[in-house]
Amino acid sequence: MPAKEEILGRLKSATKRQNIDRPAKPTLSEITLNRQQMIRRLESELSMRAGVLYQARDKEDALRILLDIITAEGLKSFVASSEKIHGVDIASFGSQKGLSVTIPKDLANRDSLRDAAFAADAGITSADFAVAETGTIGIIFNHNHPRLLSIAPPLHIAIMSVKDLYPVYENVMEIVFKNTKEIPSQFSFITGPSATSDIQGTEFKGMHGPKKVFVIMIMDG
Amino acid sequence: MKVSLFIPCTVDIMMPEIGIAAHTLLSNLGTQTIYHKEQTCCGQPLFNAGYRDQAKQVAKHFIEVFGEDECIVSPAGSCVCMVKYHYPELLEDEPAWHKRACGLADRVYELSQYIVDVLKTTDVGAKYEGKITYHESCHILRGLNISDQPKKLIAGVEGVQFVELENSTTCCGFGGEFAIGYPEISEALVRDKAANFIKSGADVLLLCEPGCLLNISGYLHRNHPQKTARHLASFLAENLKKV
Amino acid sequence: MHSHINKFMETARKELKNEQSQMFLMMVALGAPILRQIGMSSFPDITAAESYSRAIRADAIARLPELLEEFEKNAESKGAKVLWAKDAAEANKIILDIANCGGVSYVMKGKSMITEEIGLNDHLIKNGVEVFETDLGEVITQNLNLHPFHLVGPAINVPPGEISEVFLKKGIIKKASTDPVELGSGARRYLRDKFRNLQMGIVGVNMAVAETGTIINVENEGNIRLIKSSPKTLVAIMSLEKVVPTIKDAIYMTRMLTRNCTGQKITSYMTMDTGPKKPEEQDGPEELFIIILDNGRSEIYRDFKTREILKCIRCGACLNTCPVYTKIGGYPYGATYCGPVGQVLTPMLAGIESTADLYRACTLCGMCKQICPAGIDHPSLLLSYRARQIDIKNQKGKKTMQSRRENAMAGLISLGMSHGWLWNFGLKITRPLMNSLAKDGYIASIPMGAQGWFGCRDLRAIPAKTFHETWNDLPSLPESSGNTSKKEDS
Question: What is the pTM of this model?
Answer without folding.
Answer: 0.95
